[in-house]
Design a protein that fits this description.
single chain, alpha+beta, 4-stranded antiparallel beta sheet, 3-stranded antiparallel beta sheet
C-alpha cells in the first residue's frame, strides 16, 4: 500500500507541476482556482476540475480525486473510495479488494504516512497524507 500511496501523491504532484508551469502559480492551488486559473480545464497531459474543497484530475484514463482544503497543514485528503477509484483506473496498479484497502490504510496509519481526519472529535471517514510524507 505504501507504493500505491506514493503513486497517488506523485500523480497529484505531476499535475500540480504542469499547472504551475502553465499558469505561473507555485503554491496554494486550492485558493487560486477560479481566480488565477479556470476551475476546470486542461494542462499538457491532465484534465482537471476543482470543485468545492476537492479536485478531480484525469490522465490516460486514470482518475484521481482528492480534497485540497488546507485545514491543518496536511493538504492532501482523500476518502477510501477516492483511493480505490485511483487504484481501479490505474493499469500500473493491481486491483485490491476493499478489505485489503482498509487493511493497507490501517498499516499506513501505523507507519505514520497518513492519519484520519478528526474534526471536533468526530471521525470524518477521510484520510490525510501527513506533511512529512510529502517531503
Amino acid at each position: 500500500m505504501n507504493r500505491i500511496l506514493k503513486q497517488y501523491i506523485q500523480f497529484i504532484k505531476d499535475f500540480e507541476n504542469e499547472l504551475s508551469c502553465k499558469y505561473n502559480i507555485y503554491d496554494d492551488f486550492w485558493n487560486q482556482s477560479g481566480i488565477r486559473f479556470p476551475k476546470e480545464g486542461t494542462t499538457d497531459h491532465f484534465k482537471y476540475n476543482y470543485h468545492g474543497a476537492g479536485c478531480k484530475i484525469q490522465k490516460d484514463g486514470v482518475v484521481c480525486e482528492f480534497d485540497v482544503a488546507p485545514l491543518n497543514g496536511n493538504d492532501i485528503k482523500f476518502s477510501p473510495w477516492k483511493l480505490f477509484n485511483f487504484i481501479n483506473t490505474n493499469p500500473d496498479i493491481d486491483n485490491v479488494s476493499k478489505e485489503d484497502l482498509d487493511l493497507g490504510l490501517s498499516l499506513l496509519i501505523e507507519q505514520k504516512q497518513i492519519s484520519k481526519l478528526i474534526i471536533d472529535g468526530i471521525d470524518t471517514g477521510v484520510y490525510q497524507v501527513l506533511s512529512e510524507t510529502l517531503d
